[in-house]
Fold each of these.
Amino acid sequence: MSLAERKAALIRMARSTVAIPLRDEATRCTIWLKLEYLLPSGSTKDRVAAFILGHGVETGAITEETIVVEASSGSTSISLAMACAVIGVRFRAVMPANVSRERSLIIRRYGGETVLTPAAGGVLGAIEETRRMAAADPRVFLTRQFENQLNARAHQRETGPELIQQIGTTIHGFVAGVGTGGTLMGVARALREAGHPTRIARAIPEKGTACFAGQPEICGGIPGIVDGLSTILDPAEIVLDEDIHVDEREAISASRELCQRGLPVGPSSGLNLAAARILARRLGPDRTIATVLCDRMERYFSTDLFGDLERDS
């Protein structure tokens, strides 16, 4: 099978998820949840990986000899590892040393390589390392998730239109946490293009409460939500509403609630649900709010999402 044929198979895999309604009795609003964790590797980042790599193959920037490299704390690297396995090119994830072990194992199971950078440098330190790799080796293709406009375009062309078609009525509010900003920016553009009078808001976790089990030195932060690194999000273009701040304990609680409803998600999904409920209160009764459930719970076994079960066992 040629590289182009493998690319086509990848794009077919990483497309289309369902959305389901959740009635919020406190506000009499309906919150629609797009189940992005149902994508092949378990994350909405599959769309981005397929879109960026597909474009790279189409333009000739990716060949059989390419080494795809990304700086990522987890989900994007997992999606790229899966996508590179499908199209048959090497993948190297560069991540801070404090990422959860299960994420590294998933990447390696797909055949990807992992390079750990000092935890103190965070994702920015990992990004700097990818740039050094690209400068030293012409085979390296950087996907640049925090600045690549193809990230947002994947959601503008696919996630957003799917969501609009599945809900089938006016969408009054959309909210999502921001890591790269691609989901929020892309879906917002799709909503604007379709003429929806949607209030668009960013969910921001209040840091300092959620912890990695057994690793108190890295307490704080919802995995995948990164401050200040995205150059994709343009608040003025999409007319961003007032930010919605969510206590991390509330985000973790909402994640556990979703799991107990049979929706096996990670902490960022709980953040989005909690923020959607706050947006519903802001907009008033009988409104339609939408958000995404970003990824699956299995990559968070060593985080506070499972901390209560660890304590009880």
Amino acid sequence: MKIGFIGLGLMGGSIARAVRYFYPEAEIIAASRTRASVEQAIEDGVVSRAAEGVTGDFGDCDYIFLCAPVSSNAEYLKKLKPVIGPACIITDVGSTKSDIHAKVTELQMEEHFIGGHPMAGSEKTGYSHSKRILIENAYYVITPSEKVPKEAVERYRDLVASLKALPLILDYRTHDYVTAGISHLPHIIASALVNLVRDSDTEDGIMKLVAAGGFKDITRIASSSPEMWEQICMTNRENISSILNDYIQSLIRIRQKLDDAEGGAVYHLFETSRDYRDSLPVRGSGPIQPVYEIYCDMVDEAGGIATLATILASNQINLKNIGIIHSREFIEAVLRIEFYDEKSRKQAAEILRKYRYVIYERS
């Protein structure tokens, strides 16, 4: 099997690492605007050799992954069209699918294209942060073109599954509608809420001072890359606008219930949202990245945090973040500890309980 990568950042590098691990004999070639990332991947044994741009080197590839920015992939499609073989499948890793499917149709390349969206990621970028397990147990949405052979779709689905991801085949229009609701709109809401608090704050910044707990939880994703989210929103405008309109109308209805002092309706809002939220998978993989955290009760005394950190370090558990919680409306604990993965979170909770720390875990 020969696989090509155009773009070798966080996602491209992670998929390439997974391919190399599960298919050690595969030939992997890569081209990237950042030459250093390809050279590092060759040194790591992930990539077999570098391609000098989008050339005939990609002509005999079984699969080609477009892992460049969404705005660049259309140009790469044009360059690939005259060089790819008759059985080659081109795929991408973008968060929106309608634009690239439209470009594929325009270029009459539907028989060669299967869209892909691995619902995984990190706040860090670049090949240096890529890792083989990034897509493991994460949903990997597959959006076949209308003219691509069914056998090719099945082969690609099997490839995704063999990399330990969870393939989910959807129409690309359905994909963009779904992600508009569960990923794109929440990012807009979080950013808008942060800006609202910023603009509504008191002169001495009291809102910012006490903002923690629930506020920081629901606005965490506002810290995402502005460049990436601009591209996502611009390539899924219609779906986001439609769902955003529905959301605005729901807020207007809620405001009216408050103005009319309809306590039963307000209760119903919180009851139905609680029940639906509690029915969600506890630790699923989705487009918004989970936070792996625990909360710990401890007395505020000199060396307390250092002792806890030493216990975890001696058990080879890396901390992503640790800090005192000053605003604890809905959190009983004093200390919040964040980890890089679920395994570390579970191990830390077990170890600290053995040392008689009181640990809280939130769903």
